[in-house]
Protein backbone atom coordinates (compact mmCIF):
# COMPACT_ATOMS: atom_id res chain seq x y z
CA UNK A 1 0.00 0.00 0.00
CA UNK A 2 2.81 2.40 0.92
CA UNK A 3 4.66 1.49 -2.27
CA UNK A 4 1.55 2.27 -4.35
CA UNK A 5 1.18 5.69 -2.68
CA UNK A 6 4.88 6.39 -3.27
CA UNK A 7 4.61 5.64 -6.99
CA UNK A 8 1.43 7.76 -7.23
CA UNK A 9 3.16 10.76 -5.65
CA UNK A 10 6.22 10.17 -7.86
CA UNK A 11 4.14 10.13 -11.06
CA UNK A 12 2.31 13.31 -10.03
CA UNK A 13 5.63 15.04 -9.28
CA UNK A 14 7.10 14.00 -12.63
CA UNK A 15 4.00 15.27 -14.42
CA UNK A 16 4.29 18.65 -12.68
CA UNK A 17 7.99 18.88 -13.56
CA UNK A 18 7.23 18.00 -17.19
CA UNK A 19 4.58 20.74 -17.50
CA UNK A 20 6.92 23.32 -15.93
CA UNK A 21 9.74 22.22 -18.26
CA UNK A 22 7.53 22.67 -21.34
CA UNK A 23 6.45 26.17 -20.25
CA UNK A 24 9.98 27.30 -19.40
CA UNK A 25 11.47 25.90 -22.63
CA UNK A 26 8.86 27.70 -24.75
CA UNK A 27 9.53 31.00 -22.98
CA UNK A 28 13.32 30.61 -23.32
CA UNK A 29 13.10 29.76 -27.03
CA UNK A 30 10.81 32.72 -27.57
CA UNK A 31 13.00 35.27 -25.82
CA UNK A 32 16.43 34.03 -26.95
CA UNK A 33 17.83 34.00 -30.47
CA UNK A 34 21.26 32.73 -31.39
CA UNK A 35 23.38 35.83 -32.18
CA UNK A 36 25.85 35.94 -35.03
CA UNK A 37 29.42 34.92 -34.28
CA UNK A 38 31.66 37.94 -34.80
CA UNK A 39 34.38 35.76 -36.41
CA UNK A 40 32.05 34.99 -39.32
CA UNK A 41 31.28 38.50 -40.50
CA UNK A 42 30.02 37.38 -43.92
CA UNK A 43 27.12 35.44 -42.42
CA UNK A 44 26.07 38.30 -40.11
CA UNK A 45 23.14 40.62 -40.85
CA UNK A 46 23.64 44.02 -39.24
CA UNK A 47 20.85 46.49 -38.39
CA UNK A 48 20.33 49.54 -40.58
CA UNK A 49 19.30 51.50 -37.48
CA UNK A 50 22.83 51.16 -36.09
CA UNK A 51 23.93 53.77 -38.68
CA UNK A 52 21.56 56.34 -37.07
CA UNK A 53 19.84 57.28 -40.34
CA UNK A 54 17.35 60.16 -40.58
CA UNK A 55 13.98 58.54 -41.05
CA UNK A 56 10.43 59.58 -41.80
CA UNK A 57 7.11 57.91 -41.03
CA UNK A 58 4.38 58.27 -43.67
CA UNK A 59 0.90 56.77 -43.43
CA UNK A 60 -1.45 56.54 -46.41
CA UNK A 61 -4.97 55.18 -46.92
CA UNK A 62 -6.04 53.04 -49.88
CA UNK A 63 -9.08 51.05 -50.97
CA UNK A 64 -6.94 48.00 -51.70
CA UNK A 65 -3.96 46.55 -49.76
CA UNK A 66 -1.87 46.71 -52.95
CA UNK A 67 -2.68 50.46 -53.31
CA UNK A 68 -4.75 50.01 -56.46
CA UNK A 69 -7.01 53.00 -56.95
CA UNK A 70 -4.55 55.50 -55.49
CA UNK A 71 -3.17 56.57 -52.09
CA UNK A 72 -4.10 59.42 -49.75
CA UNK A 73 -1.58 60.77 -47.27
CA UNK A 74 -3.15 61.13 -43.80
CA UNK A 75 -0.07 61.67 -41.61
CA UNK A 76 3.64 62.39 -41.97
CA UNK A 77 6.13 62.36 -39.08
CA UNK A 78 9.23 64.36 -40.04
CA UNK A 79 12.49 63.71 -38.16
CA UNK A 80 11.10 60.43 -36.98
CA UNK A 81 12.96 59.15 -33.90
CA UNK A 82 12.64 55.40 -33.41
CA UNK A 83 13.13 55.65 -29.64
CA UNK A 84 10.59 58.47 -29.08
CA UNK A 85 7.04 57.51 -28.15
CA UNK A 86 4.17 59.61 -29.48
CA UNK A 87 0.43 59.64 -30.15
CA UNK A 88 -1.35 61.63 -32.84
CA UNK A 89 -5.05 62.06 -33.63
CA UNK A 90 -5.88 62.71 -37.28
CA UNK A 91 -9.17 63.04 -39.14
CA UNK A 92 -9.40 60.61 -42.05
CA UNK A 93 -11.67 61.36 -45.01
CA UNK A 94 -13.68 58.30 -46.03
CA UNK A 95 -14.11 57.51 -49.74
CA UNK A 96 -17.60 56.90 -51.05
CA UNK A 97 -16.86 53.19 -51.47
CA UNK A 98 -15.99 52.88 -47.77
CA UNK A 99 -19.12 54.78 -46.74
CA UNK A 100 -21.18 52.31 -48.77
CA UNK A 101 -20.05 49.34 -46.65
CA UNK A 102 -16.64 49.12 -48.31
CA UNK A 103 -13.16 48.63 -46.88
CA UNK A 104 -10.18 50.91 -46.24
CA UNK A 105 -6.54 50.08 -45.58
CA UNK A 106 -3.61 51.91 -44.05
CA UNK A 107 -0.15 51.67 -45.65
CA UNK A 108 2.59 52.53 -43.14
CA UNK A 109 5.99 53.48 -44.60
CA UNK A 110 9.30 54.03 -42.79
CA UNK A 111 11.80 55.56 -45.21
CA UNK A 112 14.72 57.96 -45.39
CA UNK A 113 13.93 61.61 -44.73
CA UNK A 114 13.81 63.84 -47.80
CA UNK A 115 12.63 61.04 -50.08
CA UNK A 116 9.21 59.69 -50.92
CA UNK A 117 8.56 56.00 -50.24
CA UNK A 118 8.72 55.30 -53.99
CA UNK A 119 12.10 57.00 -54.36
CA UNK A 120 13.70 55.17 -51.43
CA UNK A 121 14.91 51.64 -52.07
CA UNK A 122 15.52 51.21 -48.35
CA UNK A 123 11.91 51.78 -47.34
CA UNK A 124 9.91 49.26 -45.36
CA UNK A 125 6.13 49.17 -45.13
CA UNK A 126 3.24 47.28 -43.59
CA UNK A 127 -0.48 47.12 -44.41
CA UNK A 128 -3.19 47.39 -41.75
CA UNK A 129 -6.95 47.14 -42.23
CA UNK A 130 -8.78 50.17 -40.88
CA UNK A 131 -12.24 48.65 -41.27
CA UNK A 132 -13.88 45.43 -40.20
CA UNK A 133 -17.30 43.85 -40.56
CA UNK A 134 -19.49 43.13 -37.56
CA UNK A 135 -22.81 41.28 -37.65
CA UNK A 136 -25.24 43.05 -35.28
CA UNK A 137 -27.38 41.00 -32.91
CA UNK A 138 -31.08 41.69 -33.43
CA UNK A 139 -33.37 41.42 -30.42
CA UNK A 140 -36.64 39.56 -30.72
CA UNK A 141 -38.17 42.11 -28.36
CA UNK A 142 -37.15 45.04 -30.53
CA UNK A 143 -39.58 44.10 -33.26
CA UNK A 144 -36.97 44.70 -35.98
CA UNK A 145 -36.79 42.74 -39.17
CA UNK A 146 -34.62 39.72 -38.48
CA UNK A 147 -33.87 39.21 -42.15
CA UNK A 148 -31.21 41.89 -41.74
CA UNK A 149 -29.53 40.22 -38.78
CA UNK A 150 -27.04 38.40 -41.02
CA UNK A 151 -26.00 41.53 -42.91
CA UNK A 152 -22.50 42.63 -41.78
CA UNK A 153 -21.97 46.35 -41.23
CA UNK A 154 -18.62 48.05 -41.79
CA UNK A 155 -16.99 49.47 -38.65
CA UNK A 156 -14.01 51.79 -38.24
CA UNK A 157 -10.92 50.93 -36.23
CA UNK A 158 -10.31 54.18 -34.39
CA UNK A 159 -6.81 53.17 -33.24
CA UNK A 160 -3.66 52.29 -35.19
CA UNK A 161 -0.64 51.10 -33.18
CA UNK A 162 2.78 50.93 -34.83
CA UNK A 163 6.01 49.55 -33.34
CA UNK A 164 9.64 49.28 -34.42
CA UNK A 165 12.13 46.91 -32.81
CA UNK A 166 14.74 48.97 -30.98
CA UNK A 167 17.25 46.16 -30.39
CA UNK A 168 20.35 46.36 -32.60
CA UNK A 169 20.50 42.60 -32.85
CA UNK A 170 23.09 40.89 -35.03
CA UNK A 171 21.31 38.07 -36.87
CA UNK A 172 22.97 34.95 -38.24
CA UNK A 173 21.55 34.42 -41.71
CA UNK A 174 21.55 30.66 -41.12
CA UNK A 175 19.62 30.88 -37.85
CA UNK A 176 16.90 33.48 -38.42
CA UNK A 177 13.67 32.40 -36.63
CA UNK A 178 10.78 31.67 -38.95
CA UNK A 179 8.45 34.16 -37.27
CA UNK A 180 11.04 36.96 -37.65
CA UNK A 181 11.86 36.13 -41.25
CA UNK A 182 8.64 37.61 -42.64
CA UNK A 183 9.53 41.00 -41.07
CA UNK A 184 13.16 40.90 -42.22
CA UNK A 185 14.00 42.92 -45.35
CA UNK A 186 17.66 42.57 -46.27
CA UNK A 187 19.87 44.75 -48.51
CA UNK A 188 23.57 44.61 -49.30
CA UNK A 189 25.26 47.94 -48.53
CA UNK A 190 29.05 48.32 -48.92
CA UNK A 191 29.55 44.55 -49.06
CA UNK A 192 27.59 44.12 -45.82
CA UNK A 193 24.23 42.51 -45.33
CA UNK A 194 21.92 44.98 -43.61
CA UNK A 195 18.35 44.47 -42.47
CA UNK A 196 15.91 47.37 -42.50
CA UNK A 197 13.88 48.43 -39.43
CA UNK A 198 11.55 45.70 -38.17
CA UNK A 199 8.17 47.40 -38.54
CA UNK A 200 5.28 45.82 -36.64
CA UNK A 201 1.56 46.69 -36.54
CA UNK A 202 -0.03 45.78 -33.21
CA UNK A 203 -3.46 44.34 -34.06
CA UNK A 204 -4.07 43.15 -30.50
CA UNK A 205 -5.03 46.70 -29.54
CA UNK A 206 -7.86 46.74 -32.09
CA UNK A 207 -10.70 46.21 -29.63
CA UNK A 208 -14.46 46.08 -30.04
CA UNK A 209 -14.89 49.03 -27.68
CA UNK A 210 -12.89 51.22 -30.13
CA UNK A 211 -15.04 50.34 -33.17
CA UNK A 212 -17.22 53.03 -34.73
CA UNK A 213 -20.04 52.14 -37.12
CA UNK A 214 -19.62 53.68 -40.57
CA UNK A 215 -22.73 55.13 -42.15
CA UNK A 216 -23.36 56.72 -45.54
CA UNK A 217 -23.09 60.20 -43.97
CA UNK A 218 -19.76 59.55 -42.23
CA UNK A 219 -17.57 61.88 -44.28
CA UNK A 220 -14.55 61.60 -41.95
CA UNK A 221 -13.64 59.80 -38.74
CA UNK A 222 -10.84 60.29 -36.19
CA UNK A 223 -7.90 57.91 -36.07
CA UNK A 224 -5.51 57.69 -33.11
CA UNK A 225 -2.00 56.82 -34.31
CA UNK A 226 0.21 55.48 -31.53
CA UNK A 227 3.89 54.68 -31.85
CA UNK A 228 6.36 53.12 -29.44
CA UNK A 229 9.56 51.12 -29.71
CA UNK A 230 9.47 47.44 -28.82
CA UNK A 231 11.95 44.72 -27.94
CA UNK A 232 12.59 41.80 -30.27
CA UNK A 233 11.30 39.24 -27.78
CA UNK A 234 8.07 41.15 -27.18
CA UNK A 235 7.50 41.54 -30.92
CA UNK A 236 7.82 37.78 -31.37
CA UNK A 237 5.45 37.13 -28.47
CA UNK A 238 2.93 39.67 -29.82
CA UNK A 239 3.18 38.10 -33.29
CA UNK A 240 2.39 34.64 -31.90
CA UNK A 241 -0.65 36.01 -30.09
CA UNK A 242 -1.89 37.73 -33.25
CA UNK A 243 -1.55 34.51 -35.24
CA UNK A 244 -3.42 32.65 -32.50
CA UNK A 245 -6.18 35.28 -32.46
CA UNK A 246 -6.49 34.93 -36.24
CA UNK A 247 -6.83 31.14 -35.90
CA UNK A 248 -9.52 31.68 -33.26
CA UNK A 249 -11.49 33.77 -35.76
CA UNK A 250 -11.08 31.06 -38.39
CA UNK A 251 -12.25 28.42 -35.87
CA UNK A 252 -15.66 30.10 -35.41
CA UNK A 253 -14.87 31.75 -32.09
CA UNK A 254 -17.15 34.71 -31.50
CA UNK A 255 -15.80 38.23 -31.94
CA UNK A 256 -16.40 38.86 -28.24
CA UNK A 257 -14.31 35.83 -27.24
CA UNK A 258 -11.42 36.91 -29.46
CA UNK A 259 -11.68 40.46 -28.08
CA UNK A 260 -11.53 39.13 -24.50
CA UNK A 261 -8.45 37.11 -25.44
CA UNK A 262 -6.78 40.25 -26.78
CA UNK A 263 -7.76 42.27 -23.73
CA UNK A 264 -6.25 39.71 -21.37
CA UNK A 265 -2.78 40.26 -22.82
CA UNK A 266 -3.06 43.94 -23.74
CA UNK A 267 -4.52 45.16 -20.44
CA UNK A 268 -2.27 43.00 -18.25
CA UNK A 269 1.42 43.26 -17.42
CA UNK A 270 3.58 40.64 -19.11
CA UNK A 271 4.96 39.61 -15.72
CA UNK A 272 1.45 38.75 -14.57
CA UNK A 273 0.80 36.98 -17.86
CA UNK A 274 3.86 34.79 -17.26
CA UNK A 275 2.64 34.18 -13.71
CA UNK A 276 -0.80 33.31 -15.04
CA UNK A 277 0.63 30.76 -17.49
CA UNK A 278 2.56 29.14 -14.65
CA UNK A 279 -0.46 29.08 -12.37
CA UNK A 280 -2.66 27.81 -15.22
CA UNK A 281 -0.46 24.72 -15.41
CA UNK A 282 -1.17 24.00 -11.74
CA UNK A 283 -4.85 24.76 -12.37
CA UNK A 284 -4.96 22.05 -15.04
CA UNK A 285 -3.20 19.60 -12.73
CA UNK A 286 -5.64 20.27 -9.88
CA UNK A 287 -8.60 19.94 -12.26
CA UNK A 288 -7.29 16.57 -13.44
CA UNK A 289 -6.66 15.33 -9.89
CA UNK A 290 -10.08 16.55 -8.72
CA UNK A 291 -11.80 14.76 -11.62
CA UNK A 292 -9.81 11.56 -11.07
CA UNK A 293 -10.51 11.41 -7.33
CA UNK A 294 -14.16 12.37 -7.83
CA UNK A 295 -14.76 9.50 -10.25
CA UNK A 296 -12.90 7.06 -7.99
CA UNK A 297 -14.89 8.22 -4.96
CA UNK A 298 -18.26 7.76 -6.65
CA UNK A 299 -17.31 4.38 -8.15
CA UNK A 300 -16.54 2.99 -4.73
CA UNK A 301 -19.53 4.57 -2.99
CA UNK A 302 -22.33 2.12 -2.19
CA UNK A 303 -24.36 3.89 0.50
CA UNK A 304 -25.76 7.39 -0.08
CA UNK A 305 -25.96 8.27 3.60
CA UNK A 306 -25.03 11.93 4.12
CA UNK A 307 -25.15 12.85 0.42
CA UNK A 308 -27.46 15.68 -0.59
CA UNK A 309 -29.40 14.41 -3.58
CA UNK A 310 -30.68 17.91 -4.32
CA UNK A 311 -27.14 19.27 -4.55
CA UNK A 312 -26.09 16.48 -6.95
CA UNK A 313 -29.19 17.06 -9.07
CA UNK A 314 -28.48 20.81 -9.18
CA UNK A 315 -24.87 20.28 -10.29
CA UNK A 316 -26.14 18.06 -13.10
CA UNK A 317 -28.67 20.68 -14.16
CA UNK A 318 -26.01 23.42 -13.99
CA UNK A 319 -23.59 21.50 -16.20
CA UNK A 320 -26.31 20.84 -18.78
CA UNK A 321 -27.26 24.54 -18.84
CA UNK A 322 -23.63 25.61 -19.30
CA UNK A 323 -23.19 23.04 -22.09
CA UNK A 324 -26.23 24.31 -24.00
CA UNK A 325 -25.15 27.90 -23.36
CA UNK A 326 -21.74 27.21 -24.93
CA UNK A 327 -23.41 25.44 -27.85
CA UNK A 328 -25.74 28.41 -28.39
CA UNK A 329 -22.69 30.73 -28.44
CA UNK A 330 -20.99 28.44 -31.00
CA UNK A 331 -18.05 27.77 -28.70
CA UNK A 332 -15.07 25.81 -29.96
CA UNK A 333 -14.91 22.03 -29.63
CA UNK A 334 -11.97 22.53 -27.24
CA UNK A 335 -14.49 24.07 -24.83
CA UNK A 336 -17.53 21.94 -25.66
CA UNK A 337 -15.84 18.55 -25.24
CA UNK A 338 -14.77 19.08 -21.58
CA UNK A 339 -18.22 20.55 -20.85
CA UNK A 340 -19.84 17.47 -22.41
CA UNK A 341 -17.66 15.15 -20.33
CA UNK A 342 -18.68 17.08 -17.22
CA UNK A 343 -22.37 16.65 -18.13
CA UNK A 344 -21.96 12.90 -18.63
CA UNK A 345 -20.18 12.57 -15.28
CA UNK A 346 -22.87 14.49 -13.39
CA UNK A 347 -25.66 12.42 -15.05
CA UNK A 348 -23.85 9.29 -13.89
CA UNK A 349 -23.73 10.71 -10.33
CA UNK A 350 -27.48 11.36 -10.43
CA UNK A 351 -28.01 7.75 -11.44
CA UNK A 352 -25.87 6.65 -8.50
CA UNK A 353 -27.35 8.91 -5.83
CA UNK A 354 -30.98 8.19 -6.82
CA UNK A 355 -30.18 4.47 -7.20
CA UNK A 356 -31.62 4.21 -10.68
CA UNK A 357 -31.14 0.91 -12.53
CA UNK A 358 -31.80 0.50 -16.25
CA UNK A 359 -33.10 -2.98 -17.08
CA UNK A 360 -33.71 -4.10 -20.65
CA UNK A 361 -36.71 -6.39 -21.08
CA UNK A 362 -36.10 -7.56 -24.63
CA UNK A 363 -36.20 -4.21 -26.49
CA UNK A 364 -38.06 -2.24 -23.80
CA UNK A 365 -35.96 -0.34 -21.26
CA UNK A 366 -37.30 -0.13 -17.73
CA UNK A 367 -36.08 2.15 -14.95
CA UNK A 368 -35.98 0.55 -11.49
CA UNK A 369 -35.52 2.62 -8.35
CA UNK A 370 -33.94 0.87 -5.38
CA UNK A 371 -35.47 1.48 -1.99
CA UNK A 372 -33.63 3.59 0.56
CA UNK A 373 -32.60 2.21 3.91
CA UNK A 374 -33.44 3.98 7.17
CA UNK A 375 -30.18 5.97 7.28
CA UNK A 376 -30.62 7.14 3.70
CA UNK A 377 -34.25 8.10 4.38
CA UNK A 378 -33.02 10.17 7.32
CA UNK A 379 -30.52 11.94 5.07
CA UNK A 380 -33.24 12.58 2.48
CA UNK A 381 -35.46 14.08 5.19
CA UNK A 382 -32.76 16.61 6.15
CA UNK A 383 -32.07 17.32 2.49
CA UNK A 384 -35.72 18.12 1.81
CA UNK A 385 -35.87 20.35 4.89
CA UNK A 386 -32.77 22.23 3.71
CA UNK A 387 -34.29 22.80 0.28
CA UNK A 388 -37.46 24.14 1.89
CA UNK A 389 -35.45 26.86 3.66
CA UNK A 390 -33.24 27.36 0.63
CA UNK A 391 -36.17 28.19 -1.68
CA UNK A 392 -37.02 31.19 0.49
CA UNK A 393 -33.53 32.55 -0.29
CA UNK A 394 -33.19 31.45 -3.90
CA UNK A 395 -36.35 32.79 -5.52
CA UNK A 396 -36.12 36.40 -4.24
CA UNK A 397 -32.47 36.59 -5.28
CA UNK A 398 -33.09 35.25 -8.77
CA UNK A 399 -36.19 37.40 -9.40
CA UNK A 400 -34.30 40.46 -8.12
CA UNK A 401 -31.40 39.69 -10.44
CA UNK A 402 -33.76 39.45 -13.44
CA UNK A 403 -35.30 42.81 -12.59
CA UNK A 404 -31.88 44.42 -12.05
CA UNK A 405 -30.27 42.95 -15.18
CA UNK A 406 -29.72 45.24 -18.16
CA UNK A 407 -31.75 44.47 -21.32
CA UNK A 408 -29.78 42.22 -23.65
CA UNK A 409 -30.01 41.40 -27.33
CA UNK A 410 -30.82 37.84 -28.28
CA UNK A 411 -31.55 35.90 -31.43
CA UNK A 412 -34.55 33.90 -30.18
CA UNK A 413 -36.54 33.10 -27.07
CA UNK A 414 -34.49 29.92 -26.62
CA UNK A 415 -31.31 31.99 -26.54
CA UNK A 416 -32.93 34.38 -24.05
CA UNK A 417 -33.87 31.50 -21.73
CA UNK A 418 -30.44 29.83 -21.94
CA UNK A 419 -28.74 33.19 -21.40
CA UNK A 420 -30.66 33.87 -18.18
CA UNK A 421 -30.36 30.31 -16.93
CA UNK A 422 -26.58 30.46 -17.42
CA UNK A 423 -26.44 33.76 -15.54
CA UNK A 424 -28.45 32.20 -12.72
CA UNK A 425 -26.09 29.23 -12.58
CA UNK A 426 -23.02 31.47 -12.48
CA UNK A 427 -24.56 33.91 -10.02
CA UNK A 428 -26.29 31.64 -7.51
CA UNK A 429 -24.99 28.15 -8.22
CA UNK A 430 -22.73 28.28 -5.17
CA UNK A 431 -25.82 28.46 -2.93
CA UNK A 432 -26.70 24.87 -3.75
CA UNK A 433 -23.81 23.69 -1.61
CA UNK A 434 -25.78 24.90 1.41
CA UNK A 435 -28.10 21.83 1.53
CA UNK A 436 -25.01 19.60 1.77
CA UNK A 437 -23.65 21.70 4.62
CA UNK A 438 -27.05 21.49 6.36
CA UNK A 439 -27.06 17.69 6.03
CA UNK A 440 -23.54 17.60 7.50
CA UNK A 441 -24.74 19.71 10.42
CA UNK A 442 -27.73 17.48 11.13
CA UNK A 443 -25.71 14.24 10.88
CA UNK A 444 -22.74 15.73 12.75
CA UNK A 445 -20.43 14.06 10.23
CA UNK A 446 -18.41 14.76 7.07
CA UNK A 447 -17.11 11.21 6.61
CA UNK A 448 -19.41 10.68 3.61
CA UNK A 449 -17.63 13.37 1.53
CA UNK A 450 -14.38 13.14 -0.43
CA UNK A 451 -11.84 15.43 1.26
CA UNK A 452 -9.36 15.18 -1.62
CA UNK A 453 -11.84 16.38 -4.25
CA UNK A 454 -12.92 19.34 -2.12
CA UNK A 455 -9.31 20.23 -1.39
CA UNK A 456 -8.30 20.28 -5.08
CA UNK A 457 -11.39 22.30 -5.97
CA UNK A 458 -10.59 24.73 -3.14
CA UNK A 459 -7.07 25.20 -4.50
CA UNK A 460 -8.52 26.10 -7.91
CA UNK A 461 -11.04 28.49 -6.33
CA UNK A 462 -8.21 30.19 -4.46
CA UNK A 463 -6.17 30.48 -7.68
CA UNK A 464 -9.17 32.02 -9.48
CA UNK A 465 -9.57 34.58 -6.70
CA UNK A 466 -5.90 35.60 -6.74
CA UNK A 467 -5.87 35.90 -10.54
CA UNK A 468 -9.08 37.95 -10.53
CA UNK A 469 -7.50 40.57 -8.27
CA UNK A 470 -4.16 40.72 -10.10
CA UNK A 471 -5.00 40.17 -13.79
CA UNK A 472 -7.56 42.10 -15.77
CA UNK A 473 -10.25 39.69 -16.94
CA UNK A 474 -13.59 40.31 -18.66
CA UNK A 475 -15.58 38.92 -15.73
CA UNK A 476 -13.64 40.82 -13.08
CA UNK A 477 -13.82 44.42 -14.23
CA UNK A 478 -16.59 45.15 -11.75
CA UNK A 479 -15.43 45.13 -8.09
CA UNK A 480 -18.69 43.38 -7.18
CA UNK A 481 -17.80 40.52 -9.51
CA UNK A 482 -14.34 40.33 -7.97
CA UNK A 483 -15.78 40.05 -4.47
CA UNK A 484 -18.05 37.29 -5.74
CA UNK A 485 -14.98 35.05 -6.10
CA UNK A 486 -14.92 34.74 -2.30
CA UNK A 487 -18.21 32.81 -2.31
CA UNK A 488 -16.59 29.41 -2.83
CA UNK A 489 -13.92 30.18 -0.25
CA UNK A 490 -16.57 31.02 2.36
CA UNK A 491 -18.35 27.72 1.75
CA UNK A 492 -15.07 25.83 1.90
CA UNK A 493 -14.23 27.49 5.22
CA UNK A 494 -17.63 26.39 6.53
CA UNK A 495 -16.79 22.84 5.42
CA UNK A 496 -13.40 23.04 7.19
CA UNK A 497 -15.15 24.16 10.36
CA UNK A 498 -17.47 21.16 10.09
CA UNK A 499 -14.50 18.89 9.46
CA UNK A 500 -12.89 20.22 12.65
CA UNK A 501 -16.11 19.93 14.67
CA UNK A 502 -16.97 16.45 13.37
CA UNK A 503 -13.61 14.63 12.99
CA UNK A 504 -13.53 11.30 11.19
CA UNK A 505 -12.60 8.32 13.38
CA UNK A 506 -10.18 6.33 11.21
CA UNK A 507 -10.00 3.47 13.72
CA UNK A 508 -13.61 2.45 13.02
CA UNK A 509 -14.39 -0.05 10.29
CA UNK A 510 -17.32 2.02 8.95
Question: Layout of helices and strands, plus pairs?
Answer:
Layout: H1 2-31, E1 44-47, E2 55-62, E3 72-80, E4 86-93, H2 96-99, E5 105-112, E6 124-129, E7 131-134, E8 153-157, E9 159-165, E10 171-172, H3 178-181, E11 186-189, E12 192-195, E13 199-201, E14 211-213, E15 220-230, H4 232-250, H5 255-266, H6 270-300, H7 309-328, H8 333-353, E16 356-361, E17 364-369, H9 374-404, H10 413-428, H11 434-443, H12 451-470, H13 479-483, H14 486-501
Parallel strand pairs: 1-12, 9-15
Antiparallel strand pairs: 1-10, 2-3, 2-5, 4-15, 5-6, 7-8, 8-14, 9-13, 11-12, 16-17
How would you describe the overall organization of this protein?
A hairpin with a 2-residue loop joins strand 16 (356-361) and strand 17 (364-369). The relative contact order is 0.09. It contains 14 helices and 17 strands. Helix 4 packs antiparallel against helix 5. It is elongated, with a radius of gyration of 30 Å. Strands 10-1-12-11 form a four-stranded mixed beta sheet, with no helix packed on it. It has a four-stranded antiparallel beta sheet with strand order 3-2-5-6, with no helix packed on it. The two termini are 20 Å apart. The protein has 510 residues and is α+β, with helices and mostly antiparallel strands. It has helices at 2-31, 96-99, 178-181, 232-250, 255-266, 270-300, 309-328, 333-353, 374-404, 413-428, 434-443, 451-470, 479-483, 486-501; strands at residues 44-47, 55-62, 72-80, 86-93, 105-112, 124-129, 131-134, 153-157, 159-165, 171-172, 186-189, 192-195, 199-201, 211-213, 220-230, 356-361, 364-369. The longest helix has 31 residues, at 270-300.
Amino acid sequence: MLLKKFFTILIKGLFVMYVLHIICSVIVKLMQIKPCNSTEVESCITPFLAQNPKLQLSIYTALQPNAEGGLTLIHKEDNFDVNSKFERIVNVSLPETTRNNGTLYALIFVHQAGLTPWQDLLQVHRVAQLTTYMVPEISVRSGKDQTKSDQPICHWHSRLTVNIVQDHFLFDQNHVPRDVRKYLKIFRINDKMVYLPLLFVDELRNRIKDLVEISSISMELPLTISYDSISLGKMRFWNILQVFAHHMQQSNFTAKTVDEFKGFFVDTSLYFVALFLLVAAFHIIFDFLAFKNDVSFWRQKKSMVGMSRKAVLWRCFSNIVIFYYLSDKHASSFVLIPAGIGCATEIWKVKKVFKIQLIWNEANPTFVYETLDNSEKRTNKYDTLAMKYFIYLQYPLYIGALLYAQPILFKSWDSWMIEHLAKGVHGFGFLFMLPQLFVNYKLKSVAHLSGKVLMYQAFNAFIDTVMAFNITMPASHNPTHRLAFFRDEVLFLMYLCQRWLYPVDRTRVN
